[in-house]
Amino acid sequence: MDIFERRVANLGPLGMYAKQADGYFMFPKLEGEISNRMTFKGKEMLVWSLNNYLGLANHPEVREADAQAAKEWGLAYPMGARMMSGQTKYHEQLERELADFVGKEDAFLLNYGYQGMISIIDSLVDRKDVVVYDSEAHACIIDGLRLHIGKRFVYPHNNIENLKIQLQRARKLTQESGGAILVITEGVYGMTGDQGKLKEIVALKDEFDFRLLVDDAHGFGTMGATGAGTHQEQGVMDGVDVYFGTFAKAMAGIGAFVATRADVVEYLRFNMRSQTYAKSLPMPMVIGSLKRLELIRTHPELKNKLWTVVNKLQSGLREAGFNLGNASSPVTPVILEGGIAEGTQITVDMRENHGIFCSMVTYPVIPKGMILLRLIPTAVHTLEDVEYTIDAFQQVRQKLNAGAYSNEMFDISVLG
Description:
There is one protein chain. This protein has 17 helices and 14 strands. The two termini are about 40 Å apart. The strands form three sheets. It has a seven-stranded mixed β-sheet. The protein has a four-stranded mixed β-sheet with strand order 1-2-3-12. By secondary structure, the protein is an alpha/beta fold. The protein has two domains: about 10-45 and about 300-415, Alpha-Beta Complex (Aspartate Aminotransferase, domain 1); about 60-300, Aspartate Aminotransferase, domain 2 (3-Layer(aba) Sandwich). A hairpin with a 2-residue loop joins strand 2 and strand 3 (about 45).
């Protein structure tokens, strides 16, 4: 069979809904200034779906730094991969400042978070090594593990007792192969908002002799006393061996970094294929990231404002009887009973009748029979936004419980 025919005949678990969902549930266009209120299909929306945690996307100092860097350097400089011709003192400065901020000896800039995590895993382990990872690990971790030709064991989400069992299996294999063990978890889980049990995992290191890699995409800038991350929040900064953070969330930019021991960073600099064979991060991204990091360090009120909104939103929803799971980070999941049909109806009701834009998640991303509406509070949201949203959610829940939402996917064509 022709490869094109085979692919278009089976569009996949998300693509199968393309005709019903494209442009509304998937690939929606939010327009206007990045803020708590934007425009969707000509209507103003209260937006809870942007990872602009600290409100830096349109911070005046950030906008000025980005514009000035683009004016001075353009988007092309530096040309080439860093190993060949793309190295600058500003890239090195950003790496030093990031390493210092997250409590590590050194750091290495990455062009993209997803790409970077895949390449970190690929670089650190070989066929003799065993990887043990959380069952709810992000897709970038799963794709990185697909490149791993050695053994890998998964433990149920945050189940430390089962982690011990997997570590015992891993230890037996590595004793035979002469390999090593790498444990991978997340600091903050971006869908459910709970934290990885870093403290409990670190406590197992002496017994099982492994290294710990933490993906802290949602924790960097939002968790811990200074915003250094979830490892700071849980008091295990030294226990995390490899720390990964991204600029796409709290930093409101593009790029990522990996921070660890200086000698390990040196190894990664010469062995991460995704960086060796990719153009260097453009100068405006680097200069802009320096400004963003400066604001995170010197303006704690940004994180304080975020958490004021987070606490008000989560406490209000819980007091109203909503299930937020084990959320203990800014990520706020509202879990309801139902499937994709009810989920689409609820999403349309929220957007068309309440003017609220948030992300809807159903099976196969989460178990069948569940709807997850994910809210991302930011420092630019107001307490009035919170009160309005809680009231809207209560109205939606009443309709759901009364059976007001049909068991058929909403036909967005009727919206025009």
